[in-house]
Design a protein that fits this description.
Elements lengths: L3 E10 L3 H17 L4 E6 L11 H4 L6 E10 L2 H13 L1 H6 L13 E6 L5
Antiparallel strand pairs: 1-3, 1-4, 2-3
């Protein structure tokens, strides 16, 4: 079964990881309620700063921060678009979108949608 994946890379201050995880648990419930197939939040464990590129460089990681890689799996791009449309209208997500309350710098987060080409 071919799937579609949204991937996210986020810089999170180490002293706000608990708050980020709490927010992510709430967000995961919303995505799953609207039909996402899988939702993962992964905190950096073996992530070095590269000479040219790396996860830390990609988000301009600062001292005292770590990197979180997240992904959400859908049936297809069409399914992702439908789920995302519902998620973005959900009041639970709207409450989390206040930049003053976010436990990370959203300006340095990046994301994208990907077609799955190998799935085992």
């Amino acid at each position: 079964m071919a799937t579609y994946v949204d991937g996210f890379v986020v810089p999170v201050p180490k002293n706000k990881v608990k708050a980020y995880v709490a927010m992510a648990r709430k967000a995961s419930k919303v995505w799953m309620d609207y039909g996402a197939l899988d939702y993962k939040e992964c905190i950096a464990d073996d992530v070095k700063v590269g000479k040219r590129t790396s996860f830390p460089r990609s988000v301009k990681m600062k001292r005292g921060e770590t990197v979180v890689f997240s992904y959400i799996v859908y049936k297809s791009r069409k399914h992702r678009d439908a789920v995302m449309g519902k998620v973005m209208k959900d009041p639970r997500i709207a409450k989390m979108m206040d930049p003053k309350k976010m436990p990370f710098d959203a300006k340095r987060m990046f994301w994208g949608g990907f077609k799955t080409v190998v799935e085992v």
